[in-house]
Amino acid sequence: MSKNTIILLVSFMVVGFQAYAQKHKDKKKLWASDYNYEATCEAVGVDGTKVIQVNTFARKADQAIVIAKKRAIAACLFRGVHGASEIEPIITDRSIIEKHQEYFENFFETGNLYLNFIAYTNDHNLGGKEKIKMKKGYKIRLKVSVAYDALREEMEKEGFAKKLGEALEGAKKPTIMILPSLVYCHRHESSVISTSVDGVNNIETPDYKQLFNTNSEIRNVIAKIEHMMIDRDFPIRDLESSLNSIEKDRLRNSLSNVKQTQKERLLNDIQPDLVMDLDFEVKPKGLQKYVTFTLKGIDAYTDNVIASTHGTGEPSYSASPDILLEEAVLNYLDNFNADLQKYFDNVLEKGRPIQAEFRISNDNEDLNFESEFNYDIGDGVEELELFDIIDNWIENNAVKGVYSNPKSLENVLIFNPVNIPLFNEKDKPIDAKKFFKPLRDLIKKELQIPCKIDQVGLGKVLIILGEE
Prior knowledge:
alpha+beta
């Protein structure tokens, strides 16, 4: 074989390989690019679907429609989608695309597997701005309902995506209780009571028991939201069953020196990490009804708002309030939950802020925070003031030593905040009272001072020295 022939054959082989590589590259462009198409999330369905709007261009309208369908699926798989709801990409490891390129080329082959995850499109009813004839082709705006949950399950089965449970493995989730807001209870006047906890000032608080007795819709609505949160692996404390529980313990609560509202008793007994404060209203629109809602995430220990969202649902002729609310909330819930989890993760790391108030009993005139005691702080016994003993204990036991300098009044010390751990060494939850019990025992046994703790709320304790 002549030298020129060999060169010619080699040239054909190189050109053929380049053409083959280019063909695969062009195929990949249709589904793996981050930049060459626009996709937004228009809505989220209760059946696990996501409605994705894709804008694309091609020489022929039919070709543009096929490309748009592929790109709706690709957006859910590889890059995520912004819009009415934030959709995270199912496949987060970009190397999987390269390692399994042959699989995805087959998956996105026209008429192949990707079609299994398209519930419907509006391709038979395109008009106006949705299908525009351009100089060199067609610009198409297509809405594609993607069976997102089914698509994720398929990728999990193939080993390309972690199962949601595995992705969150090891991560603790906050315990949540869903409460009707005071605003909602005000619209049902018999469900608000005026309570005095200090004998002077009256405060308005919800009467949840009365609300359940007089309002049939709230039970179904709370149950629906609880179900949505349980589906997302959040532990839930049910309001109605919790009310029944604290009703049985009413005698025990009545013996406490600290007066509490129904809500405070509820939170102290059930001890959720976070509260979802829910307000909603069903409104008429002609013969239809629609719902507006406001949802707040609140730290049950500090009463601080840590997440908030609101929205309006689509009108319906026949849907019940719980279904209207489910459909309205669905677009916002995952982002709202992400804010809850982010806050809780931060609390896990840095500790939960609570308040501790120390008081000297009026019956103990010889005791004050400057009283001195022999106390071993680890370097030998020293004579220390009571204030320094308390301050030293808090510094050694607060998470990462984080606490504020106390506010000092006559015979009163207020530490706010003190960052406490969420769990003890046995992984059991800790509230403010449990955290300070060892200090109470130290004061009683080592300093020989009578001492007791009253829990004012989940995140506040009153420690009285000189009184049992």
